[in-house]
Amino acid sequence: MPQQQQQRRMFTAALLALVFILAAVSTTEAGKKEKPEKKAKKSDCGEWQWSVCVPTNGDCGLGTREGTRTGAECKQTTKTQKCKIPCNWKKQFGAECKYQFQAWGECDLNTALKTRTGNLKRALHNADCQKTVTISKPCGKLTKPKPQGKFHLL
């Protein structure tokens, strides 16, 4: 009999321990407050609109650009940003637009010009660039065909 009593005591102790553990876990869970999800801030601020990059010196290199946006409750409606205009880009198409050009075409004898087309490769700072551009340049030395034979005028 003493062995049965000892087993009952151990069973009771184990059962009480289990009850205490379950009570502790449920108390801990109940004590935790569910964190409310962060509310997404609804902003009435518009998108930033950026001016073209204005170089500090010359027509390329480091410079600044101005940004503005609208909105009644915007904390910031204007700001200045540093920018850079690459010095090897063709400025006639916009200093912030980079084009990949094809080979020069044949010389047009009527205009003495040759042309080539460029496709937009990259636009800095969301610049408004044309998709394709065409440039012309003088052909250079034009050689007129020489007569094949010798002619004598009398």
Automatic annotation (TrEMBL):
Which cellular compartments is it found in?
Secreted
Tell me a GO cellular component: extracellular region
Q: What does this protein do?
A: Secreted growth factor that mediates its signal through cell-surface proteoglycan and non-proteoglycan receptors. Regulates many processes like cell proliferation, cell survival, cell growth, cell differentiation and cell migration.
Q: Signal peptide: which range, if any?
A: 1-30
Q: Which SUPFAM superfamilies match?
A: Midkine
Q: Which InterPro entries match?
A: Midkine_heparin-bd_GF, PTN/MK_C_dom, PTN/MK_C_dom_sf, PTN/MK_diS_sf, PTN/MK_N_dom, PTN/MK_N_dom_sf, PTN_MK_heparin-bd_GF_CS
Q: Which biological processes are named by the entry's GO terms?
A: positive regulation of cell division
Source organism phylogeny = Eukaryota, Metazoa, Chordata, Craniata, Vertebrata
* Domain Pleiotrophin/Midkine C-terminal per the UniProt entry, residue ranges: 94-149
Record keywords, A-Z: Disulfide bond, Growth factor, Heparin-binding, Mitogen, Secreted, Signal
Protein family: Belongs to the pleiotrophin family.
**Domain called Pleiotrophin/Midkine N-terminal: residue spans:** 32-93
**What Gene Ontology molecular function terms does this protein carry?**
growth factor activity; heparin binding
Identification of the protein by name: Pleiotrophin
One Pfam family per UniProt? PTN_MK_C
Q: Which SMART domains match?
A: PTN
